[in-house]
Design a protein that fits this description.
CATH class of the largest domain: Alpha Beta
CATH superfamily of the largest domain: NAD(P)-binding Rossmann-like Domain
Structural class: alpha/beta
Strand content: 5-15%
Radius of gyration: 19 Å
Number of strands: 10
Order of helices and strands: EHEEHHEHEEHEHEHEEH
Distance between the termini: 18 Å
Oligomer: single chain
CATH architecture of the largest domain: 3-Layer(aba) Sandwich
Number of domains: 2
Largest sheet: 7 strands, parallel
Strand order of the largest sheet: 6-5-4-7-8-9-10
Length: about 270
């Protein structure tokens, strides 16, 4: 079954009507909302790499907008020049080592940043220093820009809390293009209003959608987009490619690309 919908309850009903299904290909990278449906009877695969470049471009846009105080300029309603704060040669930390992280590192290369990556496996990534999650608290205080590109799991929920926000540089920028649950929202509001960090760029929030009255909307140091970094309509070619490859792999007795491990949560 190739699933391009967004509601797990509808997929659950579809699977009940099709008990012979043994493989489900999801169109999303994040799978946390589908985990309750997963059992040993069915193999599930996620759309790894399909929207990575789109999401990475969005992450870079958010970082540059926050660094250049773009939101404050737009809201000023007057000619108020902002500091020319650049990304070039900056210390950068990427949390997550998947397709988005790798696409982002490629986009950052012309900026000559000094990148570090924290990911569960700690496998080498060309052009970056890579460490396992136990390095996060060591590297977080060094980074000018922190990109969150990790899956939401039991281990990563609430990863960025008040303690970690306080440990960051006062001129740091936090960018989240992964899942809102990686950040404790109330702690982020406090960090931005108290000046613990310089700004945040958020494509995802917790809760989501973010209510109109939420204080994040009114903060000039916060840039918010409506979970639109990736879009299947604009990544349909790569998705179809992935589906073709996975069908061939299954036909040849191989596991699909992006096979989900329900215990890990991705």
């Amino acid at each position: 079954m190739i699933w391009t919908g967004e509601r797990p309850s509808v997929l659950a009903a579809a699977l009940e009507c099709a008990p012979s299904v043994r493989w489900v290909q999801l169109a999303s990278t994040g799978v946390e909302s589908y985990l309750p449906l997963m059992d040993q009877r069915i193999r599930w695969s996620r759309a790894v790499g399909v929207q990575s470049e789109l999401v990475a471009e969005h992450a870079l846009m958010l970082a540059l907008t926050v660094l250049r105080q773009g939101t404050a300029s737009v809201r000023a309603g007057a000619w108020l020049p902002r500091p020319a704060i650049g990304l070039t040669n900056a210390e950068v930390l990427v949390v997550g080592g998947g397709g988005v992280a790798r696409a982002l590192l490629a986009l950052l290369r012309p900026f000559r940043v000094r990148p570090k990556v924290v990911c569960r496996g700690g496998a080498p990534i060309a052009g970056a220093e890579v460490g396992t999650p136990d390095r996060l608290d060591e590297w977080l205080p060094e980074a000018r820009v922190v990109f969150l590109a990790a899956p939401l799991t039991a281990d990563t929920a609430g990863l960025i809390d008040a303690v970690r926000l306080r440990s960051m540089r006062r001129d740091a920028c936090l960018v989240n293009v992964a899942r809102g649950g990686l950040v404790i929202t109330d702690d982020l509001v406090r960090a931005l209003t108290s000046g613990w960090i310089a700004g945040a760029g958020l494509d995802v929030t917790d809760p989501e959608p973010l209510p109109p009255e939420h204080p994040l909307w009114s903060l000039p140091t916060c840039v918010i987009t409506a979970h639109c970094a990736g879009d299947l309509d604009h990544a349909l070619g790569p998705f179809v490619d992935l589906v073709r490859r996975n069908i061939r792999r299954l036909a040849n007795g191989l596991e699909p690309i992006g096979l989900v491990d329900p215990e890990l949560g991705y």
